[in-house]
Amino acid sequence: MQRHDKIVVAAATGLLVYTLLLSFLGPTVASLMTSTKLSNSGAIKAIGIGVYSDNTCTIPLTSLNWNTLNPNSTNTINCYIKNTGDSNDTVTMSTSGWNPSTAPTYLTFSWNLQNQVLTAGQIKQATFTLTVSPSITGITTFSFNVTITGTG
């Protein structure tokens, strides 16, 4: 057999082996690549300040809708925080009531205004961020409550 013929036979054999491996391993690999759609519900409670969905602070924001979340993703929601009092307030955020209780193992919630001071009447844009772990498992729906407090 000539060298050219050996190359053609080797290439054809390699292609055949590759095709057979894809036939057998394709379903296994596909089953490892999953996405999970998560839904969220929960309330926002404001103490001493206002939380709004619009920059004119006329539409109160009472819940967060994250839309579709997938493993290894980060989603953000913007809103506006207004100091409705007559003195400077330091704003803080906390969460509670996670359901299921394992959700915080896979979900990280944060915002950009923690411990910032708002003067009386001041409005600042806030960004809530929810990061989903790539290893999330066993959670298809979740809920938690957010409390934002202004302390003078």
* DSSP summary, beta strand count: 9
Helical coverage, percent range:
10-25%
- Kindly estimate the percentage of residues that lie in beta strands according to DSSP: 35-45%
CATH class placement of the largest domain? Mainly Beta
Helix-strand string = HEEEEEHEEEE
Sequence stretches where pLDDT stays below 50 over 5 or more residues: 4-39
CATH architecture of the largest domain: Sandwich
CATH topology term of the largest domain: Ctag/Cox11 (Pfam 04442)
Summarize the structure.
With 152 residues, the chain is an alpha+beta fold. The protein has helices spanning 3-32, 103-106; strands spanning 39-41, 44-47, 50-52, 73-82, 89-99, 107-111, 116-118, 123-132, 141-151.
Keywords:
single chain; 152 residues; alpha+beta; Ctag/Cox11 (Pfam 04442); 2 domains; five-stranded mixed β-sheet; four-stranded antiparallel β-sheet; 2 helices; elongated
What does this structure look like?
This protein is an alpha+beta fold and 152 residues long. It has two domains: 1-33; 39-151, Ctag/Cox11 (Pfam 04442). Helices cover 22% and strands 39% of the residues. It contains two helices and nine strands, in the order αβββββαββββ. It has helices spanning 3-32, 103-106, and strands spanning 39-41, 44-47, 50-52, 73-82, 89-99, 107-111, 116-118, 123-132, 141-151. Strands 1, 2, 5, 7 and 9 form a five-stranded mixed beta sheet that branches. Strands 3-4-8-6 form a four-stranded antiparallel beta sheet. The protein starts with a helix and ends with a strand. Residues 4-39 have low confidence and may be disordered.
